[in-house]
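ugh ok fine here u go
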Amino acid sequence: MTATLPTAAPSIAAHAAPAPSRRATWPLFGVLAGATSLAAGFVGLTGNYAEKGENKGLAILDEVNRGGYHVAFLLGLVSVASLLLASSGWRRWAEERAPRSLAARTIPQALAATAAINVIGYSLAGSMALYLPGGTDAGWLTPESMFVNWTYLDFGLLLGWWGGAVAAGCAAALSFGRSAVLPRWMGVVSILLLLPPVGMAIGMALPGMPGFTMPLWLIVVSIGMVFSKKAQA
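structure:
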C-alpha cells in the first residue's frame, strides 16, 4: 500500500496581484515652496519700491509697507523649509531613477542653493518689519541702515531663484534624448519659463526675473512629478 503525500495548497501570495504603487507626495513640498515664494515676492514688493524715475532717498522709508515685509518674511520661511524638503525628495528620486546623471544630481543642489540665498532676503524683510515704525524695535537702526536693507530688497526676495533656473535647465536636459527620465512636456515648460529671465539678464542686466518665473516652474513640474508615470516620482 503506497501512501499519497498531500499536495501543498497553492500559495495565495503567489497569485495575489501586486499592490498598486502609490503616488509620491514629496513633490507637493515643491508646490508649497513655489506658491509661498511667489506670494512673498508680491507681498514684499507691493508698495515698497520707488516708481521709475523717482529718487526720494531716505524719505522712501516713510512710505514703505511694514506689514507687507512681515507677511513676506513669514511666507518666505515656509518657502525655504518646503524647498529644502523638496530638494531632499529630488535627491532620493535621482538616486533611484538616474543615479549616473549629472543633471539629475544637480537639481536638488540647485534647489537647496535657492533656499540658502532666499533666506537672506526673507530675513532682511523681517528686519524691516522689526525696525520700521510700528515694529517692536522701531527706531533702533538709523535711517541710513534701513535704507541699505531697503535697497537690497529691491531684488533681494527674488535673487535666489537663479538656482531654480539651473534646476529648470537640468530638468529640460532630462526630458529629451534616448535616456530621458522626465516627460517631454516638462522640458518644454522648463525652456519656456527659462527664456524670460535669461533674455532679460542678457538684454537688460535685470537680475530679479527668475523670482517670478521659476517658482511657477517649480509648481508646474512638482505637480507633474506627482502624476507622471514616466517620472515615477
